C-alpha cells in the first residue's frame, strides 16, 4: 500500500474510533471552533503541536513554519495572528521552538544556493545569531550553539509578538509564552511565561539539557 493510501485508511480508522468513543465528537466539531490557544511552532515533523500537548482537534489554532518565526511583514503569519486574536479571541499565544532545529542550525552554516526561499526566511535568524555571536562562540560544538540560538530565537519571537500592535493594542491582550521542546525526552521547557512578562531573559536557563527544568518542576 502506498503511503497516501495508508494515510487515508488510517484516517477512516481514526474517525471510526473517535465516533465510537464519543458519538457527539464530530457533530460538536462541525459546529465551529473556539480554541483558547494560538500555537506558533516549527514545521519539523517531530514537533506536532497537538500530539506533544495531548490536545484534541479544536483545542489549538496552529501556525507552523521553519524555525517558528514570527515575521510582522509576512501576511501568512500576520493573518493567522490577526484572526486568532480578533476573531477567535485566544487567551494565549505560545511560541514553541525545539532543540535540534534544522532551520536554526542552518542559520549558523554557510547558506545553500539550492534554498533561496529558506535563506530569505531564516535571514532574521542569521541576524539574531550575529547579535549574540559573543555568547554563541562560547560553545565549541555546533549543536550546542544551535540549541542556545534556538532558545534565543524563541525569546526573540516572544518579544516581537508582545510588541505587535495586534496584541499590544488590545485591551484584553492574550498572554504570550515562549516554550522549547526537547526531542530527546519529549518534554517542554518554559523559557518565558506570559504570567510574568518582563522576567523572561533574567529567568533564561542555560542550553545545557542536563540542567533543564521540566514544565512540572517549573510549576506550570
Ligand atoms: Zn525546527
Automatic annotation (TrEMBL):
Gene Ontology biological-process annotations: carbon utilization; cellular response to carbon dioxide; cellular response to oxidative stress
InterPro entries (UniProt xref): Carbonic_anhydrase, Carbonic_anhydrase_CS, Carbonic_anhydrase_sf
Keywords assigned: Lyase, Metal-binding, Zinc
Cofactor binding, per record: Binds 1 zinc ion per subunit.
Superkingdom classification of source: Bacteria
CDD domains: beta_CA_cladeA
UniProt binding sites for Zn(2+): 42, 44, 98, 101
Record-linked Gene3D superfamilies: Carbonic anhydrase
GO-annotated cellular components: cytoplasm
UniProt enzyme class: lyase
Gene Ontology MF, one: zinc ion binding
EC number: 4.2.1.1
A Pfam family matched in the record: Pro_CA
Cofactor(s) listed in the protein's UniProt record: Zn(2+)
Annotated signal peptide: none
Catalytic reaction(s) noted: hydrogencarbonate + H(+) = CO2 + H2O
PANTHER family: CARBONIC ANHYDRASE (PTHR11002)
Function, in words: Reversible hydration of carbon dioxide.
Protein family per UniProt: Belongs to the beta-class carbonic anhydrase family.
The protein's name: Carbonic anhydrase
Species of the source: Caballeronia concitans
Amino acid at each position: 500500500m502506498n503511503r497516501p493510501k495508508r494515510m487515508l485508511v488510517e484516517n477512516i480508522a481514526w474517525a471510526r474510533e473517535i465516533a465510537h468513543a464519543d458519538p457527539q465528537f464530530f457533530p460538536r466539531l462541525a459546529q465551529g471552533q473556539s480554541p483558547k490557544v494560538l500555537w506558533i511552532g516549527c514545521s519539523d515533523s517531530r514537533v506536532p503541536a497537538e500530539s506533544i500537548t495531548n490536545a484534541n482537534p479544536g483545542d489549538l489554532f496552529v501556525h507552523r513554519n521553519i524555525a517558528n518565526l514570527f515575521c510582522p511583514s509576512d501576511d501568512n503569519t500576520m493573518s493567522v495572528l490577526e484572526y486568532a486574536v480578533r476573531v477567535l479571541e485566544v487567551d494565549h499565544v505560545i511560541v514553541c521552538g525545539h532543540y535540534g532545529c534544522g532551520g536554526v542550525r542552518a542559520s549558523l552554516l554557510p547558506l545553500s544556493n539550492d534554498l533561496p526561499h529558506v535563506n530569505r526566511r531564516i535571514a532574521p535568524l542569521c541576524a539574531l545569531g550575529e547579535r549574540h555571536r559573543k555568547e554563541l562562540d562560547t560553545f565549541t560544538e555546533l549543536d550546542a550553539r544551535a540549541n542556545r540560538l534556538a532558545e534565543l530565537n524563541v525569546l526573540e519571537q516572544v518579544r516581537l509578538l508582545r510588541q505587535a500592535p495586534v496584541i499590544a493594542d488590545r485591551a484584553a491582550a492574550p498572554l504570550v509564552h515562549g516554550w522549547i521542546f526537547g526531542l530527546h525526552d519529549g518534554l517542554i521547557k518554559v523559557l518565558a511565561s506570559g504570567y510574568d512578562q518582563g522576567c523572561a531573559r533574567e529567568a533564561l536557563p542555560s542550553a545545557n539539557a542536563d540542567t533543564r527544568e521540566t514544565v512540572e518542576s517549573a510549576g506550570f
